[in-house]
Amino acid sequence: MSSHSEAPAVPVEAYEPPYYMAVFTTLRTQDQSGYSETDARLEDLVKGIPGYLGTDHAQTPGGLGITVSYFRDADALTKWRADVEHRAAQQRGRAEWYQSYTLHVAKVERSSGFTRAQVPQGPTAD
Amino acid sequence: MSSHSEAPAVPVEAYEPPYYMAVFTTLRTQDQSGYSETDARLEDLVKGIPGYLGTDHAQTPGGLGITVSYFRDADALTKWRADVEHRAAQQRGRAEWYQSYTLHVAKVERSSGFTRAQVPQGPTAD
Fold it and tell me: Which keywords does this chain's UniProt record carry (chains A, B) (predicted)?
């Protein structure tokens, strides 16, 4: 899922392990009709799953797309996997939107993060 | 690490679990001087790690970058983590190239893949 907000995307933070993540790597077809509407709908749905932590998405123009979704535990991921609209979207994805994809589901054992310190700004002149 | 080949990127395949992956999500700074040379050098180095399986990379222009590297086992990932040039590059990344990043290291428990069937081509006329 891509981010639909206008704010600049920032990486999802490092949560305290263990937690789960699903890495979905895709190469798209030429025909992307209906994709963005479905993507927005799935983004709303996944936010309703208890234990959903967030999603990172990056898309190289004309190249690989990577979506990483994070979940507190395996149960949360199982609930998302069983969602009826999610399953229908997966089926449509294989029929129309994806040339190829790989899904890797994993338990996070270690995580860390970095955020650059803000450079202090001098007072602005009036 | 990005792919430096001219061939269209395809997703790294689904290996037989368990295997390991490191998900590195980044937001870059304006100053990317020296980044691409270091990236190319690291790509060569990681290929020399026994048990290295491959890397997926996607970069939204002006937005999030995601790099996922796959390893056969935790030992392979530990070797890569300990590489001296890799560690120096990480330090330079924090000093110059990254506004923020998150690293998630995980054990893959389940994986699957899909590749669209080729549409048969009729014989071309001479």
Answer: Monooxygenase, Oxidoreductase
